[in-house]
């Protein structure tokens, strides 16, 4: 099979797999969006259009920031609430939008940790942008199970610990950033991508080529270099 045919094949598979969730979706997608609204403070009233008293088919598809497979069924494919001023922990109920392919919650005031089971609950995500929040704690190794992911933005948070080396398995990744966190240790050796130093910038103790050498846990010179 030619290499340039692989992305098309993957997207075709993604569409088929997502369609299989329709029978279970719909009602759970309504609950998904309701839980987002109920779990986050919304001082700017961005979610004021999210009125769940209307139960007509496809009514959630008219909500601000929500994109559905079509306007005739309540199956959410994308939620984009960038710079909405939302405050609170990561909305756990979002796991019920099981067919979602694009999630953008960047530029808000989300706090707490990234759920460890996110990749299992949202297996079809192609783009995840959680940048410019107040998220803390480690990056879950399970993020490596986002097998369709193209975009992963976790920059400008308070994330700590190491970047899971399992992320090197994300062979469809074309955009990646963990800059401006509190990460340390070596970076994953992505096989199919060469991300710039800016993707890792301003993480004290993070080891990434091509800056000054760092030491591994055995105090031996590592093959990675420190990002400052």
Quick recap:
By secondary structure, the protein is of the alpha/beta class.
Structure description:
With 228 residues, the protein is of the alpha/beta class. It has three helices and 14 strands. The protein has helices at 6-19, 27-39, 118-121, and strands at 66-68, 76-80, 87-89, 102-104, 109-112, 127-129, 134-137, 151-153, 158-162, 175-177, 182-186, 206-207, 213-215, 221-227. The chain has an eight-stranded mixed sheet with strand order 3-5-7-9-11-12-14-13, with no helix packed on it. Strand 13 (213-215) and strand 14 (221-227) form a beta hairpin. The longest helix has 14 residues, at 6-19. It is globular, with a radius of gyration of 19 Å.
How far is the first residue's CA from the last residue's CA?
A: 42 Å
Main beta sheet: 8 strands, mixed
The dominant shape is globular
Q: List the total number of helices.
A: 3
| Helical residues, percent | 10-25%
Radius of gyration: 19 Å
pLDDT < 50 stretches: 1-11, 16-25, 217-228
Order of secondary-structure elements: HHEEEEEHEEEEEEEEE
Overall pLDDT level: 84
| Percentage of β-strand residues | 15-25%
In total, the number of strands is 14
Structural class: alpha/beta
Main β-sheet, spatial strand arrangement: 3-5-7-9-11-12-14-13
Supply database-style keywords.
228 residues; alpha/beta; eight-stranded mixed beta sheet; 3 helices; 14% helix
Write the layout of secondary structure elements.
Blueprint: H1 6-19, H2 27-39, E1 66-68, E2 76-80, E3 87-89, E4 102-104, E5 109-112, H3 118-121, E6 127-129, E7 134-137, E8 151-153, E9 158-162, E10 175-177, E11 182-186, E12 206-207, E13 213-215, E14 221-227
Parallel strand pairs: 2-4, 3-5, 4-6, 5-7, 6-8, 7-9, 8-10, 9-11, 11-12
Antiparallel strand pairs: 1-2, 12-14, 13-14
